[in-house]
Amino acid sequence: MDSVTKQSSNNIQKGNVSSTQNLLLTVGLCVRNGQSTLNAAINSVANQDFPHEQMEMIFVDDGSTDKTAEILNEYAAKKDIPAKVFSHAWRGIGYGRNVVAKNAEGKYILWVDGDMVLSPGYIPRIVDFMEKNPQFAITKGVQELRYGGNLFATLELLSRASSRMVDYSSEKTSSKALGTGGAIYRTEAIKQAGYFDDTLTRYGEDQDIEIRIRKNGWKLASINVSFQDYERLGIKWKSLYKRYYVRGYCTHYFLHKNPGLIKLYKMLPPAVFLAGILQAQKIFRKTHYRQAYLLPFHNMLKMYAWYIGFVSSHGDSYQPK
What is the CATH number of the domain that holds 80? Predict the structure, then answer.
């Protein structure tokens, strides 16, 4: 971390050293160019009914070129929750998460994305679950099912939400990533697993550490407390294509480390279409959104982009920024 510039808020610099000892929760927020959504994300944490003296916030600015760093430093200086800001040139999400994990004082780390909003009561509920269930290393809430601003965005939000409607405590779902956004981790479990892989710069750092955490005997869970995902609000086909192209590209390198984990036949058109039908039925039963029955076609488009990225990666020896 010698290349990281650390900036501490006034309440860290002047506060009693013992105030950061034995903290229950560290909120980790890693972000790059998130100025449009950061305020809502941070406020959704600050407004939780959870004792501020039992928590801290660690912000990681991963090479932003907008006003992200300015916003983070402003919040760190004025909030009554102790906060630290780390800024560095772009290093990727795996590196950023390790900056949080290696500087966290909390028993738990709650990962909040710069474009998500936690529902009221999210933190008390999820911390309470972890306190009462010591066998679980990672727990996450559920994404709200909502209209996304246009048809593409709505279908993407529904697809993301439905893909995580599984029992993560079961060994049958061990190849399915719970994900970090909105998830709470035991700091002990992260250290035990050897931290995140900072060579995974864009995707896969969450699934990679989940695999190692499970191997150490820990369990994962999802509980019924919600968050809103703003990342895909208003997304259009061009942006969606780029997102899944890069995801497919990076999956090639992820599979070098975890061979056989992802069954590539499940990415073929017939399997993707069938999975979309099952997703549509699941979503329709919960929401009665008729648009849900377009999910098989939406997923086919995403997998088209994913496969182009995956095949393209085989001729390269680096990961895209």
Answer: 3.90.550.10
Could you tell me the two tokens for 149?
């601003």
What phi and psi, each to the nearest 5 degrees, are found at residue 147? -75, 135
- 10 and 40 belong to one structural domain: yes
Regarding pTM above 0.90, the answer is no
- Domain count within the chain: 2
Report the C-alpha gap between 93 and 205 in whole angstroms.
Answer: 7
Per-residue pLDDT of the chain (321 residues; tens, 9 = 90+): 334 444 443 332 222 233 344 789 999 999 999 998 999 999 999 999 999 999 999 999 999 999 999 999 999 988 789 999 999 999 999 999 999 999 999 999 999 999 899 999 999 999 999 999 999 999 999 877 776 678 888 888 888 777 777 766 665 555 578 889 999 999 999 999 999 999 988 888 999 999 999 999 999 999 988 887 665 666 788 888 998 898 888 888 788 777 766 677 777 888 889 989 998 998 898 888 888 899 999 999 999 998 899 888 877 655 544
Q: Which two tokens stand for residue 164?
A: 């995580």
Pairwise CA distance, residues 89 & 3, whole Å? 8
* Domain match, 172 and 257 both: no
Is the domain of 263 the same as that of 183?
no
H or E stretch at 126: helix 122-132
